[in-house]
Amino acid sequence: MGDIKRADFYDGPAHDYLGYWKGRDYEHDAERIAIDRLLAGQHFEHAVDVGGGYGRITALLPQYADHVTLAEPSQRQLDVAARFLGEGIERVQAQAAHLPFATGSMDLVTMIRVMHHLPDPTAELAEIARVLDAVGVAVIEVANLGHARNRLRRLGRGVPVGPVDIRSPENRHDDEIPFVNHNIDTVTRQLSDAGLRVVRSLSVSNLRSGALKRVVPHRVLLRVERAAQPALARCRFGPSIFLLVAKG
């Protein structure tokens, strides 16, 4: 679930985000591999998962942090999270652009599958920079406008600098949640403007294909994914780019 200005989009009974992830084991495990790789060997005092929905990614963080908080704007998703996460993880209703945490109080921030709901992430990135400790890190996932298949489709035209709305024409109205892909170079500059620098990047969900998932065993997909994430990061191959960022 993304952190958005219209949190009520995820509050209606028609939106079953927990159900959405059924059958998407490859995508979830690909993201778990990325997080484990970016945070390997590190331990933190306080982590917050921003816009974490029902806690899909939040549930991975206790192995890396003594105290974990899920910050999510949708009350419906927080109610689901209460059952999904159980005890031990704090849940707060909050927008990514207005986090209820003290400056420098977090040494790990994650924001996964949120940027695709933020055509202009300036305020959200500034908040991450504000709450992040001087020696802390953040893991930010970006829906990649320049992924390999899109570059082929746009051959000779290049990748647009600004975000591109990928909603269907009938859904492009004010009542529908934004859904955009971003230029990674632009996001890197936006991070820099917020006082954050990219330490490492990974190309994630490189084999995201319904046809592949039907014919290739899950364990084989993950074996290839694990090897591909760092190898394909430089060419930004995949539809999802994970960025490890720090202050400075």
Overall 3D form: globular
- The portion of residues forming beta strands comes to 15-25%
Uncertain runs are: 1-6
CATH topology: Rossmann fold
What average pLDDT do the residues reach? 91
Q: Count the helices. How many? A: 8
Which strands sit side by side, in order, in the main sheet? 3-2-1-4-5-9-8
CATH class: Alpha Beta
How many structural domains? 1
Instruction: Quickly give the CATH architecture.
Output: 3-Layer(aba) Sandwich
Question: Ends: how far apart?
Answer: 29 Å
- Name the structural class: alpha/beta
Using the CA coordinates, give the radius of gyration: 17 Å
Oligomer: single chain
Number of strands: 9
Q: Order of helices and strands, N to C?
A: HHEEHEEHEHEEHEHHE
The CATH homologous superfamily name equals: Vaccinia Virus protein VP39
Helix content percent band: 25-40%
Largest sheet: 7 strands, mixed
Write up this protein.
The strands form two sheets. Strands 3-2-1-4-5-9-8 form a seven-stranded mixed sheet, sandwiched between helices. Strands 6-7 form a two-stranded antiparallel sheet. The relative contact order is 0.17. The protein has helices spanning 17-20, 25-39, 75-85, 122-131, 148-153, 184-193, 210-215, 218-231; strands at residues 44-50, 65-72, 90-93, 106-111, 132-143, 164-165, 180-181, 196-204, 240-247. The chain is an alpha/beta fold. Helix 2 (25-39) crosses helix 8 (218-231). Strand 4, helix 4 (122-131) and strand 5 (132-143) form a beta-alpha-beta unit. The chain has eight helices and nine strands. The chain has a single domain, classed as Vaccinia Virus protein VP39 (Rossmann fold), CATH 3.40.50.150. This is Class I SAM-dependent methyltransferase. It comes from Lentzea rhizosphaerae.
